[in-house]
Amino acid sequence: MNKTVVVYKSKYGKTKRYAEWIAEALNAPLFENGNITPLQLNNYDIVVYGGGLYGGEINGVKLVTKNFCKLLVVFTVGLADPGNTDFKPILENTFTGEQLSKTKVFHLRGGIDYSKLSLVHKGIMAVMKKMIEKKPSAERDGDSAGILETYGKNIDFSDKETIKPLTEYVRTLYLV
Q1: How many Cβ atoms sit within 10 Å of the Cβ of residue 93?
Q2: Cα 159 from chain centre
């Protein structure tokens, strides 16, 4: 069986929770982004990397985009509903075309607890809310409606069941 490692970078805990669930399901070691070196990544056949989405970027992903990984699987965690969100611009800004063609990406829904947000993130969310409110209702997409619906609240959409496609995909790599 191939060696798999799960690595994550989490600001508010949702990505860490998903990483723990994935590592447990795959019986794989788990490392926080700052606790594994690029050299150590080379010891694994499959690297599963998870990062939260903030400002159109995947938290800490440079660890795996700037260093060689034999096989890379990425999961993102964000407030937006993956079923109606276009992640293509984020992925194209994060990975080279070649990296993206060799990387399987999964999007998982996290949540938000406004009481735990940093001042910067609170400010960003306030600006986003104001921008969305200025748009006519007919021009608001699902993400915009979600931001207005959850603004100022503690909302958790984390769901352990949503890791199944990722863990099943990684298990298929063991057969290759």
Answers
A1: 10
A2: 14
Which domains does the chain show, CATH number per domain?
A: 4-110+157-174 (3.40.50.360), 112-155 (no CATH)
Closest residue by Cα to residue 59 from 47, 40, 76, 73: 76
- Cβ neighbors of 65 (< 8 A, separation 6 or more) are 94, 95, 96, 99
Lookup result for tokens 């994550």: 8
- What phi, psi does 43 have (nearest 5°)? -80, -5
- Return the structure tokens found at 36: 């594994």
75-132 confidence digits (pLDDT tens): 999 988 898 888 899 999 999 999 999 999 999 999 888 888 889 888 988 998 999 9
- Based on its alpha-carbon atoms, the radius of gyration of the chain, rounded to whole angstroms, reads 17
Q: Which residues pair with 74 in a beta bridge?
A: 49, 105
